[in-house]
Amino acid sequence: MKQGGSYANSSGGVLEGLVEFALTKKGFTVVRYKDWRLNPSSYSEELLLKNVPYEVLYKHASATEFVLMSKAYNLNTRIECKWQQVSGSVDEKLPYLFLNCSEKMVEPHIIILLDGGGAKPGAIEWFRDACEKFNLNEATTSKRKIDLMSMTEFVQWVNSVFK
User: Fold this and answer.
1) Distance separating alpha carbons of residues 159 and 26, to the nearest angstrom
2) Helix (H, G, I), strand (E, B) or coil at 49
3) Which segments constitute the PD-(D/E)XK nuclease domain (predicted)?
4) At 51, which helix (H) or strand (E)?
5) DSSP codes, 86-148
6) Which of 92, 96, 117, 136 has an alpha carbon within 20 to 30 A of 80's alpha carbon?
7) Per residue in 109-157, pLDDT tens?
């Protein structure tokens, strides 16, 4: 039986699988970033890249689960997945995640997919407020946007954008 971190990792893998499923049903091809980077022109223009690198606040390398790229829909969206089924450390990491999204991730749209039902309500409220303030501030300048979504909200977004 899995415990602690290995359980969280396998549960997070289920969340990532749901993202892949929802987007492949809409015609996206899933490709590892390291494969795509070697020869981008050999792939379609409707892609879900996996394990996409970026530099975090502490100036070391990290990776996000996905970047969604669509020429047809003019999208370049980074998708970060966080699964928290029981109360734990994800809550404490949300401010750090938000700062990385707002200061280090360069895509015009970032989706933080947070689900599992274990996050503290105050943490979710804080994150939604932080996203809303960021989006209001950026609306007239960079036009960058950060959205916090549950899996249900993500599927609704996918269905409304990719009709």
Assistant:
1) 8
2) strand
3) 8-161
4) strand 46-55
5) SSSTHHHHHHHHHHHHHHT--SSEEEEEEESS-S-HHHHHHHHHHHHHHHHHHTTTT--EEEE
6) 136
7) 999 999 999 888 899 999 999 999 999 999 889 999 999 999 999 999 9
